[in-house]
Amino acid sequence: MTHLLYPLAIVWAVAAIAMTAVWYLQIRTRNAGFVDVAWAALLGVAALYYGVVADGSLLVRLLVALLAATWGFRLALHLLHRVLNEREDGRYAHLREHWQGHQGKFFAFFQLQAFAVALFSLPLLVAAHNPEEELSLTMVLGVLVWAGSLIGESIADLQLARWRANPRNKGITCRAGLWRYSRHPNYFFEWLHWFGYVLLAVGAPNAWLALIGPALMLVSLCWVSGIPFAEAQALRSRGEDYREYQRSTSMLIPWFPRRASTSTDPAARRVV
């Protein structure tokens, strides 16, 4: 365990400094969405760092660095495009109003995200200590899980971006593509992708610690900062249309939708 503590402490310290800078940027721009961009990018940086300093085989360290950094930077760029081109996310706008702009609370929130970077990076560090020098079946499965999750999340993000870009869809919940089968398909693939690192960690010391990734992500998405905040904002902005979506569509894991209680014509569901 001690071989994990020092790299984790370094990542936490760097994340805390970076989040302080992002907190100051939030003051200047009045847009707290930059915290999500920083969180994803810092996990990508942590993956590259672990790929250099961990004691695992070169093969596994390269896989961890390549896969996790690609995931982190792709997500960061996607979120950055949204932050730069849209108003502050409704979740953070609501917090700003609820906290009455109290910057001490925002600073604490940003520092909590810095701690989350270190915590979520633990599975990457565990996997990077895997001594396995040959490509194993679990490694192949890990790469396949990661690739499938990345493709699925990218498709979900693209489908939602196209929906939101159409002014005719204002006030209507996206039910296109993957969003017909899950209210949060992007979150589902986000959660699923963490199992890739669990598979990469098989054979490493304390490999069970890699399960912290999917476990923490599930808790975070379902009960802390993901789905509860997103759905509360959706109910505020789309009202009955989103309540119908909740009744007919699986929350996280994609599944066939239940019969809607009202008309399926998008024009009939428009929120004025």
Give a verbal description of the structure.
Helices cover 70% and strands 0% of the residues. It has helices at 2-29, 34-53, 58-85, 90-98, 103-128, 137-165, 185-200, 212-224, 227-238, 240-248. Helix 1 runs antiparallel to helix 2 (34-53), helix 2 runs parallel beside helix 5 (103-128) and helix 3 (58-85) runs parallel beside helix 6. The chain is globular and about 55 Å long. The protein starts with a helix and ends in a 24-residue tail after the last helix. Mean pLDDT is 92; it is low at 262-272.
Shape, please?
Answer: globular
For the sheet with most strands, the description reads: none
Low-pLDDT ranges = 262-272
- The count of domains is 1
Radius of gyration: 20 Å
Count of β-strands: 0
Helix content: 55-70%
Secondary-structure class: mainly alpha
Oligomer: single chain
Could you report the average pLDDT, rounded to the nearest whole number?
92
Alpha carbon gap, first and last residue: 56 Å
Order of helices and strands: HHHHHHHHHH
Structure annotation, total helices = 10
Q: What proportion of the residues form beta strands (DSSP E)?
A: under 5%
